[in-house]
Inverse folding.
């Protein structure tokens, strides 16, 4: 037999650092996740802060930040969705609540105007100042100025904090207030375009005025701006990503549903359409048909039904981990597909069912089908740090996070103190308690099943309290932009094109985190 020629020496970067197709085809016999790989740097002519983070969830819907909060009952309700959208991302309101409550939550997000207090506390002209002082004490209000309205809600004056004092307790509000003619107001219709800009303009033009009341055409009170709020927002605006808004300047909001079944086990089409119609009436931008197994009859039928009835609606569906799953949901009419089975920090699907694919390989496989079918993919679960986001975004269009956000003050649930440390509850939607609360259908069970012994696919856990969404997303956005700077990617499209991967050994993983030092301040500590 003729001797084999010696292999040629590997001499260039491209022999080691491979673009996605070459890398994942050589690694096809082994499933990889975020910590298994690292990204190689490229020549860069952009600074991190110049890189752009917008992504299109559908032809009609763009996020300014490719981060979505998970539809979980310990992660996303209205406060979280508002904070996510204000930072340019999106919140998916969970469905472990009554349909009526979910509609209310969506309405809260859609009616939220940053800087405008939409339900100001008011007083009546016939009350005494003493009554107002009692109200302040009872409710622990930290403000003392109140709009005065009559029984029809029509503005009649403004009670200044200067006269809300015990020495005037016996005086009536009407005798102490500034009358309507002296109160500064703006019409609701005049702030529709950009409320904060309109208020900012007003306060600049009216030196010394600190309150601006919003009224409708019948002079009924509709809201209140304060100078201090507007100043804070305009200062923040220079350092933050743009909020994610709809065409009439409202914050974007998503909500999740699971395919409801009627008594005979068939898809309850009427109920699905009725509920989604009501959500859309409140201004819902995105519906997520959210289950653990998206490549399934029920999810396909639900997506088809929604697409046929609501041609313009942005639909997310999932979860899948295969190209066939992506194709199935794309053909049914979904715009964006959730990818992830078992990577989540509270998930036990892989342990319980033996099913699921490590996330980076799943994303690569899904991305091939997504490109073919023109849909976006969302990397759902297993993201613990901004570096994971950068790696995910080399293949996916956005990331979905649960655990990373569950410790923030905007997540639902109370703060619990244990041995002087503060925590919030974080539980899998497939945990027994969450399934009892309503999410059983997501895992292919019925709610009544959850009283029997069924296999939970998630755990109940705690997350350390971690500040606000503004802080957390600020850190994450900064990390993504750093990654883009290293790869020389000016936007997320270029990040995908320029990514080159290499496997990391166990020693390489240890090297990647702080080592051989005693940390006195972690990156999580606040300054
Ligand atoms: P992270 O890692 O961000 O994951 O905490 C959040 C994602 O996990 C999924 N999820 C579950 N998966 N059992 C599972 O196998 C569960 O109980 C469960 N609950 C949530 C979901 O996709 C979420 O976005």
């Amino acid at each position: 037999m003729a001797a084999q020629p010696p292999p040629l020496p590997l001499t260039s970067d491209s022999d080691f650092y491979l673009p996605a197709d070459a890398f994942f085809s050589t690694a096809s016999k082994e499933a990889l996740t975020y910590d298994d790989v690292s990204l190689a740097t490229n020549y860069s002519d952009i600074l991190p802060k110049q890189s752009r983070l917008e992504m299109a969830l559908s032809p009609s819907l763009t996020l300014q930040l490719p981060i979505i909060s998970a539809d979980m009952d310990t992660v996303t309700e209205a406060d979280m969705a508002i904070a996510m959208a204000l930072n340019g991302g999106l919140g998916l309101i969970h469905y472990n609540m009554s349909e009526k409550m979910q509609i209310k939550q969506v309405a809260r997000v859609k009616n939220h105007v940053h800087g405008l207090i939409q339900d100001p506390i008011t007083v009546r002209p016939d009350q005494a100042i003493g009554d107002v002082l009692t109200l302040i004490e009872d409710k622990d209000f930290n403000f003392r100025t109140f709009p005065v309205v009559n029984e029809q809600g029509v503005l009649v004056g403004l009670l200044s904090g200067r006269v809300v004092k015990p020495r005037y307790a016996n005086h009536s509000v009407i005798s102490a207030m500034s009358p309507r003619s002296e109160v500064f107001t703006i019409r609701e219709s005049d702030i529709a375009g950009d409320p904060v800009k309109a208020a900012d303009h007003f306060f600049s033009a009216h030196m010394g005025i600190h309150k601006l009341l919003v009224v409708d055409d019948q002079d009924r009170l509709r809201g209140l701006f304060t100078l201090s709020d507007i100043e804070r927002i305009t200062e923040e605006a220079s350092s933050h990503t743009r909020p994610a808004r709809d065409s009439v300047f409202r914050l974007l909001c998503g909500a999740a549903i699971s395919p409801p079944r009627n008594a005979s086990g068939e898809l309850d089409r009427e109920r699905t359409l009725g509920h989604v119609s009501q959500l859309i009436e409140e201004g819902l931008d995105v519906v997520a048909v959210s289950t653990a197994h998206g490549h399934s009859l029920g999810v396909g039928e639900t997506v088809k039904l929604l697409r046929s009835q609501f041609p313009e609606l942005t639909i997310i569906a999932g979860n899948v981990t295969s190209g066939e799953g992506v194709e199935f949901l794309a053909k049914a009419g979904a715009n964006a597909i959730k990818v992830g089975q078992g990577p989540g920090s509270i998930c036990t699907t892989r342990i319980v069912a033996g099913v699921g694919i490590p996330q980076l390989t799943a994303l690569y496989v899904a991305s091939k089908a997504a490109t073919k079918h023109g849909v976006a993919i969302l990397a759902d679960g297993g993201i613990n740090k901004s570096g994971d986001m950068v790696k995910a975004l080399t293949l996916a269009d956005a990331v979905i996070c649960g655990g990373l956000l569950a410790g923030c003050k905007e997540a639902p649930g109370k703060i619990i103190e244990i041995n002087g440390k503060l925590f919030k509850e974080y539980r899998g939607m497939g945990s027994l308690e969450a399934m009892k609360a309503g999410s059983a259908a997501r895992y292919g069970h019925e709610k009544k099943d959850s009283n029997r012994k069924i296999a939970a696919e998630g755990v109940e856990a705690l997350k350390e309290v971690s500040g606000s969404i503004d802080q957390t997303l600020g850190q994450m956005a900064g990390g993504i932009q750093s990654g883009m700077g290293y790869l020389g990617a000016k936007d997320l499209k270029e990040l995908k094109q320029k990514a080159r991967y290499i496997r990391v050994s166990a020693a390489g993983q240890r090297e990647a985190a702080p080592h051989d030092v005693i940390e006195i301040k972690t990156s999580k500590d606040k300054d």
Observations:
- The chain has a mean pLDDT of 92.
- Residues 70, 72, 319, 340, 342, 344-347, 349, 380-383, 400-404, 428-431, 457-458 surround xanthosine-5'-monophosphate (CB under 6 Å).
- The chain has 18 helices and 23 strands.
